[in-house]
Write a structure and sequence with these properties.
The chain is mostly helical and 287 residues long. It has a domain at 19-212. The chain contains eleven helices and no strands.
Length: 287
């Protein structure tokens, strides 16, 4: 018979992995097109706030998730404009978006703090299963369709894609906004299902871990499933083990393990799998 704590750990890992997977898969698509978006944390927290506010107002958490996706996409659109159109430094723009999202959600969310959400979604809900199906479908699109070839080509060699008639700007815009939509859904899940509430900083660094999962998975949506489950288990264990290990150490565990995994991954792969043009601005006509 399987011990109860193992069953609980697996169940909780699946629940926590849901937002991580949605956000990570979205980031994979953005980065596959050549755009780094370090603003995942900001998009997630904005999605969490908007989802809670809408669900509380209209009484329907599903509409809250739709609103979260929209606000995540709009935030990503801003990053795409800065990175693709203005060719600003993608890392600086992403960090600014993360700080902007955290600050704005913190200010606007104060009036909603402490309010109970009457209608919520279950932790392991349709979003969990949709996330898994989405990862498989997006893996297939990325590696076995013409659209996937176009997305990957803009991240590998935008000049070559441009020469073949691909609108590099449009592909990057759509990929970044798509990533923002998924990050918004990930944040919305936190506030209407996983932890139905509106609290400042409720994403708790999950956006940064989602970015790390994208790298750890070598920008492969299927491998991101295992990465999300791994870090979901670590998140749960960081709370479960507080009776034996100081909470300060446990709270740092998922992030410390993230750094360790990324260091080992970088050392073993030596950059293999990284899109060649990742993080580099592109001007049409350049060779």
């Amino acid at each position: 018979m399987i011990p109860e704590w193992i069953v609980t750990t697996i169940t909780r890992a699946v629940a926590v992995s849901t937002p991580l997977l949605w956000a990570a898969v979205g980031e994979i698509y953005a980065e596959r097109s050549g755009v780094v978006n370090l603003g995942v944390e900001g998009m997630m927290i904005l999605g969490a706030f908007v989802a809670f506010a809408v669900a509380q107002t209209v009484g329907d958490p599903s509409l809250g998730l739709v609103a979260a996706a929209v606000v995540g996409g709009l935030a990503a659109l801003l990053h795409a404009f800065m990175s693709v159109t203005l060719r600003a430094n993608q890392y600086v723009s992403g960090l600014a978006l993360a700080m902007f999202g955290l600050g704005l959600a913190g200010v606007l969310g104060r009036r909603w703090e402490g309010l109970p959400l009457l209608n919520t979604l279950p932790e392991i809900s349709v979003l969990t299963y949709l996330g898994l199906l989405f990862a498989v479908a997006l893996w297939f699109v990325l590696y076995h369709t013409r659209l996937g070839i176009i997305i990957r080509s803009t991240g590998e060699s935008p000049a070559a894609a441009d020469a073949l008639g691909v609108n590099v700007y449009l592909v990057r815009y759509l990929s970044v906004v798509f990533g923002g939509l998924l990050a918004g859904v990930a944040g919305g899940y936190l506030s209407v299902a996983y932890r139905p509430s509106c609290t400042e900083g409720m994403t708790a660094g999950m956006g940064w871990i989602a970015i790390a999962i994208a790298i750890f998975a070598a920008w492969d949506p299927l491998k991101a499933v295992w990465g999300a489950l791994l870090f979901g288990a670590l998140f749960h264990l960081s709370f479960r083990l507080q009776a034996w290990i100081p909470p300060e150490v446990l709270r740092a565990m998922p992030f410390a393990f993230t750094i360790l995994v990324l260091a080992l991954t970088a050392k073993s792969r030596r950059g293999q799998g990284v899109p060649e043009a990742l993080g580099l601005p592109y001007t049409s006509g350049e060779r």
